Amino acid sequence: MTSLRYPGRRVCVVLLTGLGDVVNGLPLVNALKDHDPSLHITWVVEPMASVMLRPHPSVDDVVVYRRRQGARGVWELARELRRRRFDVTLNLNVYTKSVWPTLLSRARHRVGFDRARTFEGVWLAANHHLEPRPRGHTVDMFMEFAAHLGVPVPAAPEWRIRFTDEERREQAEFFVGMDRPVAAVVPASAIHRKDWLPDRWARVADALEGDFGFRVVLMGGRGERETRIAREIEEMARVRPLSAMGDPIRRMAWMLERSALVLAPDTGPLHIARALDVPVVGLYGHTNPWRAGPYRRYQDLWVDRYTEPGEEPDPSGFAPKRGRMEQITVDDMLERVQRAVDRYGVLRPPEERP
Question: CA 71, CA 65: separation in Å to the nearest integer?
């Protein structure tokens, strides 16, 4: 008999996207496995983010939901879930897209957020709900599911991202020719209002190369907007950055792991960097860093233009704020880079960093 609040050992986690959310769901499945290694955990996820779950030591099975295929995607999802049996389903999403996976799991016990924290009637797909409370950081909200199930919440959550032997070989080959610490710049996100300005990125890239001694590598998605922004940065910078734009997500992840510093707006690679414990300078104006920033680390490296001057940080703040990213200056960024050098030793060899 399982030690969870509800009987059974087969757990279905519904957390579809985005990449940062899926990465921030990893501490929950680690806590579940640590509590009871016999649990069998299946994760329902959309294609893009699924690569971060293969492989992962706490995820036994991955079901990919091709939601953009419409009715066909739902039919294929239903077929896959019929092949499996679940005792408990945890719906970590708050939007309508999670309703089908939750219901089609056919679990007797379906746990979701309370009504106030969900949208579009999603709470109706669950028959057990978390206690009502204000929104908080994404990791903290996900860990509420552990507490609800009677699983101890660790004081220091872990992500445990693993790379294959082949990925380690590729990583070693990529970095063997790097004679300087790498500063990874992620210039664009999936939502254009979260992005910073290309000319300012170019000036930061020049300072990283010329004043600090980093080698700048541009990383990010392969979409038209992301590649256009990266191209503009390359053209405006005095020292042309290396470009790894459009590389597969797992390749980007192992590049981030070996980077000395990461600079990014609120986007998935930022959370991968945090999960790998790489110092990250986060740019926040459109979204709330106390809700969506690197979890419990590197707050001193954030540029926070979301929180009003003199206002106490409030992780329950959910509404985006327009026009705030433009308030971030080049000097703001370079001051955070200097902090990373002084406090985290990012220009030193890895074995000499604090």
Answer: 11
- Whether the pTM exceeds 0.85: the reply is yes
Residue 1 or 96, more confident: 96
pLDDT at position 2 over 80: no
* Mean pLDDT across 252-275: 97
| Average pLDDT rounded to a whole number, residues 296-306 | 96
Q: What is the pLDDT of residues 142-151, one digit of tens each?
A: 999 999 999 9
The string of pLDDT tens digits covering residues 149-186 is 999 999 999 999 999 999 999 999 999 989 999 999 99
HEC profile for the chain? CCCCCCCCCEEEEECCCCHHHHHHCHHHHHHHHHHCCCCEEEEEECHHHHHHHCCCCCCCEEEECCHHHCHHHHHHHHHHHHCCCCCEEEECCCCHHHHHHHHHCCCCEEEECCHHHCCCCHHHHCCEECCCCCCCCHHHHHHHHHHHCCCCCCCCCCCCCCCCHHHHHHHHHHHCCCCCCEEEECCCCCCHHHCCCHHHHHHHHHHHHHHHCCEEEEEECCCHHHHHHHHHHHHHCCCCCEEEECCCHHHHHHHHHHCCEEEEECCHHHHHHHHCCCCEEEEECCCCHHHHCCCCCCHHHCEECCCCCCCCCCCCCCCCCCCCHHHCCHHHHHHHHHHHHHHHCCCCCHHHCC
